[in-house]
Write a structure and sequence with these properties.
The protein is of the alpha+beta class and 252 residues long. It is 28% helix and 33% strand. It has eight helices and ten strands. Strands 4-5-6-9-8-7 form a six-stranded antiparallel sheet. It has a two-stranded antiparallel sheet with strand order 1-2. A hairpin with a 2-residue loop joins strand 5 and strand 6. Helix 1 (25-40) packs across helix 3 and helix 2 (49-56) packs across helix 3. The mean pLDDT is 85.
Length: 252
């Protein structure tokens, strides 16, 4: 196979062009716009669909399809009635570090907006999954995740009231829950199981995060335990697929 000399290791092989060389027209336009994005830089305004259609001598619908993919990939973002070049994705580590720590390491300011904090008897399904007792009181805390005041995700945390009895009184919902557990209650995380999948947000979730329902999301399920192996939390977190990537270090 003939590889271009400037082929980036993380890029699609042969820039995604099939060996027979025939590619959809929109994909060729997308490649041209991708080069334009590099020239404009973060925050740079993109020409209008009409201007792009005239520049590349294609129909506006062809340009529109190329822009849709670039928006979904997080290379562009809507700003008012126009489109601008998006910044780099947040690279969140797959570790027991909190969301707050991961965002701060990239020079961004983390934040959260509390949607709800409810207390109710633990249902059977949650009890079986998280190692809790059916009917025991549990907290459910739902928060929108922020990075530099931009809404980037939605987090639901379930935790036994017995572990954090005063969660509704002495926890700042804009702060790190992990820091609260460690610093205020002396609880340390021991290990966790995580599962990642791609989903579409529900209409309610899309409204809370401020994204179109068709935007792909990265969904992480986490069940955490303390250093003694006791169940600690069950978390469901949605991350915007256009604003997040995940990293991990593997050892043999």
């Amino acid at each position: 196979m003939d590889y271009p000399n400037d082929q980036a290791p993380g890029a699609p092989v042969r820039s995604g062009i099939p060996e027979h060389g025939r590619i959809p027209k929109y994909y060729a336009v997308k490649a041209h716009i991708a080069l334009l994005i590099e020239e404009l830089g973060e925050g740079g305004p993109l020409p209008t669909e009409r201007d792009l259609a005239e520049r590349y001598e294609v129909a506006r619908e062809t340009v529109r399809q190329a822009l849709r993919e670039l928006l979904l990939e997080g290379k562009l973002r809507r700003q008012g009635r126009g489109t601008v070049v998006a910044g780099p994705k947040l690279a969140q580590p797959l570790s027991l570090a909190s969301y707050t720590e991961g965002v701060r390491r990239q020079g961004r300011t983390p934040g959260r907006t509390l949607i709800s904090l409810d207390r109710f008897p633990c249902p059977e399904a949650l009890a079986a999954e998280a190692g809790l007792e059916r009917g025991e009181p549990v907290w459910h805390m739902e928060r929108v995740l922020l990075a530099d005041d931009e809404r980037v995700g939605l987090e639901s945390t379930y935790v036994a009231v017995a572990r954090v009895p005063d969660l509704d009184r002495d926890f700042d919902p804009d702060s790190s829950f992990y820091a609260y557990l460690h610093d205020r209650l002396g609880i340390a995380f021991g290990d966790a199981d995580e599962r990642i999948e791609t989903v579409l947000a529900t209409p309610r979730e899309a409204l809370l995060i401020g994204t179109p329902p068709a935007l792909p999301m990265l969904l992480i399920h986490r069940i955490s335990r303390d250093t003694e192996g006791r169940p600690l939390e069950r978390v469901r977190t949605l991350y915007r697929g256009d604003r997040f990537s995940f990293t991990t270090h593997l050892r043999g």
